[in-house]
Design a protein that fits this description.
- By secondary structure, the protein is mainly beta.
- The protein has a single domain, classed as Hypothetical upf0131 protein ytfp.
- Helix content is 8%, strand content 37%.
- The protein has 1 helix and 8 strands, in the order βββββαβββ.
- The strands form 2 sheets. A 5-stranded mixed barrel has the order 1-5-2-6-7. It has a 3-stranded antiparallel sheet with strand order 4-3-8, with no helix packed on it.
């Protein structure tokens, strides 16, 4: 019967931008091992990148384009990363636009912090 049919759809096209400890060769980069690496990128808009034991990208200050990496993740991995980043209590996941190394501009999810914290990283790269 059709009403007994359950269709599970997993969005395979969820892209996230990481700029700190989740990047390759960083402290928690192992979390991204199950994700598909899309490439290096930088934000289209300018943000402020601060560091206080971990990096914080702040949107209400326009200092520099932040450099990072883009990954394609499953919905399950996104949930795990949301939990890791304590979204929405600590970091807030928001949609932003980034430019990939090949020139493509895409929309991605990024974890932003609501206020400056620590020391400014003027070059926008952790």
């Amino acid at each position: 019967m059709m009403e007994d049919l359950v269709i599970v759809v997993e969005n395979k096209d969820i892209k996230i931008f990481v700029y700190g400890t989740l990047k390759r060769n960083k402290q928690f980069g192992y979390i991204m091992k199950k994700a598909k690496f899309i490439g290096k990128a930088e934000t289209i808009e300018k943000y402020a990148l601060y560091f206080d034991h971990i990096p914080y990208m702040v949107k209400n200050e326009k200092i520099s384009n932040v450099k990072g990496e883009v990954y394609e993740v499953t919905s399950d991995l996104l949930k795990l990363i949301d939990d890791f980043e304590e979204h929405p209590v600590y970091y807030k996941r928001e949609e932003i636009r980034v430019k990939l190394e090949n020139g493509d501009i895409i929309s991605v999810w990024a974890y932003l912090f609501p206020e400056k914290r620590g020391n400014l990283i003027e070059i926008g790269e952790f």
